[in-house]
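Recall that a protein's primary structure is simply its ordered list of amino acids. Everything else, from secondary elements to tertiary packing, is in principle encoded there. The following example makes that idea concrete.
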Amino acid sequence: MLDTRTRAWAVLAVVIGITLFLGIELLEEPGKSGGELMFDLLKIAPVVITSVGVAVLFRVTQLQRDEHLQVIRDLEIARLEGQRWRNESRTLLNGLGEAIDVQFKRWHLSDAEREVALLLLKGLSTKEVAAVRGGSERTVREHARSIYSKAGLTGRAALAAFFLEDLLAPMEGPL
């Protein structure tokens, strides 16, 4: 989480702090032995370690807060873009719905068959369509067979492809 520069500054601060402490100890008591200096150093080690730990925790908390704010900003941008897309495509989606309904009428689908066909196009399973319509799976399968027969299609994939093929085709000509 911490970048290399931050770590380097932390290590440098610890080294400078320890050096200053040892320098002050030597100035106060010039005759101290190396063992005594090491004992003094050992006495301040918990303070130094705790201080560095607090500084690191503070920096990590700052980084996490910044990351959290960035995620919130990104989510808001995505929400706004999704809303913009829905608003821009609403007319197109309504037109597509009308075109699908016109084709259902050309195939002479009954109201029940049109409802089943639309639910199948939306990706619902036979079981889910039955649950939505409050009927049986067998009835839904019979409606589906009738739809495919009237439309001259081989099944659910062909039904979806009939409506989606041209929508997903690459655009021709200049944009």
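The two ends are 45 Å apart (CA to CA). DSSP finds six helices and no strands in the chain.
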